[in-house]
Amino acid sequence: MTVFEADPHLVGGIARTVEYKGFRFDIGGHRFFSKSQEVEELWTELLKDDMLLRPRSSRIYYQGKFYTYPLKAGESLRNLGLLESGRCVASYAWARLFPVKNPQSFEDWVSNQFGRRLFGIFFKTYTEKVWGMSCREISADWAAQRIKGLSLASAVWNALFPQRGTGDRSQTVKTLIDQFRYPRLGPGMMWEAAAAKTRENGGEVRMGCRVTGLEKQADRPGWRVRYVEGQGAEQVFEAEHVISSAPLRELVKAVQPPVSAEALQAANGLRYRDFLTVALIVRPSRPFDDNWIYIHEPGVKVGRVQNFGSWSPEMVPDPKLACYGLEYFCFEGDGLWTMSDADLVALGSRELQSLGLVREGDVVDGHVVRQPKAYPVYDDDYARHVAVIRDELEARYSGLHLVGRNGMHKYNNQDHSMMTALLVARNILAGRTQYDVWRVNQDAEYHEEASRDGEDQTGRQVPRTKDLRS
To answer: 259 lies in a domain?
Structure first.
């Protein structure tokens, strides 16, 4: 097995760990929690005692106040005040009595479940920051999938009567887990261990190698993989099978012989949401223990603030300092994306101070990481685009296998992405398609010999809109 990794130094893609002056930080936040026992066991096999068990601690920031997430009824009542709390209750009652019939948008679906006032407080601002569009443009399908199993009544019940130690993970609402595992030096440690294990078993991991083309051999089974190492000339590698986690849009353009005009048009229609992290090294005069804080404040651009020392103390080399990651959601090429690193560090410092998480002068240094194509976007036509591409690749390009979030244009968590790769490997070893990897979804339901029955099998639903630009 040979792995081609475009990054010259780091493995793991979006799950890599970046190091700056001894400080380590995660790109996006990766809790290691899965309903798949097999995935959990693989993590243990790779890192053993280097997997820490960490408490989940997060809050919502709204109008200068913090709300523990999952919500605590008493705290929320105090923060909102009696008048606003009464309005929220009345809004919730109205929504239950007079719901929007056949809700089509995220806004209508959430308002039906929680009332419009709670929608405005705990859903609207953050969601619009993440996706760069109005909640009226976001499909109700995504809300139903993303917030599945969480109602206002159950949230209040869990706040008043928390249940711990039941031992039944299958009954735990995934967004409400109270602990998770995490590599002591960040998620990249996991993939570095995986790379080392690959090499130990005779495989190769070629760093700094960017794949430029995939040519299906006409005279015999297999592929010619064209790649460039560093700034060198294009080279060729021959393989019987190709497993791709590259963005689907780019993969389709790289395949030879060329795909049909219809498939190329479908690939050009796939869209992505990009992301950057501003990591600030601070003197924590106002320390906090959260893994991250969701920023529901419309007056700032930051969407979420991570505290890397709360993920693992070993991410921060100096106990007198802290490292906070400010997450900004953007489109590649827009104003945020093109700002200089210095300006982004200055922006992050100002916003962190305005949120009351640091005082003036606390920030001592900063570093910026840009992550293109962090989230595949599901617009109105994404399912049709993916189906066109999938049908053509399966019909014409045997031995080419798609895995992972961008490889399948599928909004997966890391454990689901791992499972798609595991199942593809089993299909290759078996010499036939035992598992339909497209049926892997966020509930870890992995179907063997599943047939395509016309349902949307791309898994988790995310925003649909016609006017998102790539």
So the answer is: no
Number of domains in the chain: 1
Q: Is residue 153 part of a domain?
A: yes
The CA distances from residue 307 to 57, 79, 199, in Å, are 10, 23, 33
With respect to residue 327, please indicate whether it lies within any of the assigned structural domains. Answer: no
User: Measured in Å, how far apart are the chain's first and last C-alpha atoms?
Assistant: 33
Strand (E) positions, 200-270?
204-207, 209-216, 223-229, 234-239, 242-244, 255-256
> Which of the residues in the chain have pLDDT under 70?
141-177, 379-380, 441-470
CA dist list (Å): 27 to 60, 164, 196, 398, 452 = 20, 30, 22, 34, 34
Considering the domain boundaries, does residue 56 fall inside one? no
Range of the domain at 119: 71-160
Q: Which two tokens stand for residue 464?
A: 């649909």
Name beta bridge partners: 75. Answer: none
- Cα–Cα distances in Å, from 119 out to 132, 134, 148, 223, 378? 17, 13, 15, 51, 22
Spatial contact of 26 and 311, defined as CB atoms under 8 Å apart: yes
Cα separation, 160 vs 270, whole angstroms:
44
Residue 109's H or E segment, with its range, is helix 106-114
pTM of the model: 0.85
- Both structure tokens of 307: 């505290």
